[in-house]
Structure formats: structure tokens, C-alpha cells
Design a protein that fits this description.
alpha+beta; five-stranded mixed barrel; 5 strands; globular
């Protein structure tokens, strides 16, 4: 699936992603390195939205994934960040996310805290 998304990234977008990459974590590192549960991580890639649900309080929550050239990882979107992420649901956009790393015995995922377009990377990661 990752190979399918790379042709959709324009050359200049990919170059910008590579410039930012030194400040973010590659998706493949989540399996290779040991991150403590709850660690704050930054990931750059294409955000793909999957599903919307309502929690017991009636608030909207969702699931998506972020993909880079090394792989993809699930992203859980809580109600407090749902509205912030909502504008990225329609198109597969190149973004940078700030998230909490979450690992159990069975899966690894990220809990979204912030999401911004790649052009606004300095709002999450100071240069």
C-alpha cells in the first residue's frame, strides 16, 4: 500500500518531507526501537482516514493511519482532537502529526494530539 501512495506525492512535496524527516520518526522505527508507552512522537506522511464512531457520551471519535515510505501505523483520534483532524479526512494529505505512542502485546498505534499540513510543520516542530 505504501508503494501505491508514493506516485501521488508530487516531487516538491516529497523533497519537503525529506527535509523535515530529520525531526520526525519514520514509521518503521516503531517496530525496531523501544519507545516507552505514552511517549510523544512526531510522524510525517500521508494521513488516511478510515472510520468514524460515537463514544458512549455521543462524541465523535475516529481511526485513520499515517503512511510514509517505510510503512503505515494506525492513528486513534479522540473527540478532543476530532474537529482539528476533520479537515484532513477528505483528501489524502501530506501532514505532520504529534501523537502519543501506544503499545500493547498485540498492536502498536498512535493517539493523535495535533495534526498540521506539512507546510505548517513549524507549528509542531520548532525549526
Amino acid at each position: 500500500m505504501v508503494k501505491d501512495i508514493m506516485p501521488r506525492i508530487k516531487k516538491n512535496m516529497f523533497e519537503r518531507l525529506n527535509k523535515v524527516r530529520v525531526k520526525v520518526t519514520k514509521v518503521s522505527f516503531f517496530n525496531e526501537k523501544k519507545f516507552p508507552d505514552g511517549a510523544i512522537v512526531h510522524v510525517a506522511g500521508i494521513f488516511n482516514f478510515d472510520k468514524i464512531y460515537r463514544n458512549k457520551k455521543g462524541e465523535l471519535i475516529g481511526f485513520g493511519s499515517i503512511e510514509d515510505h517505510t510503512g503505515s501505523i494506525e492513528v486513534f483520534i479522540m473527540s478532543d482532537t476530532f474537529n482539528q483532524a476533520n479537515r484532513f479526512f477528505k483528501d489524502n494529505k501530506l501532514v505532520i502529526i504529534e501523537a502519543n505512542f501506544h503499545k500493547t502485546a498485540y498492536f502498536i498505534d498512535l493517539l493523535l494530539k495535533k495534526i498540521v499540513p506539512l507546510d505548517s510543520a513549524d507549528k509542531i516542530i520548532p525549526c
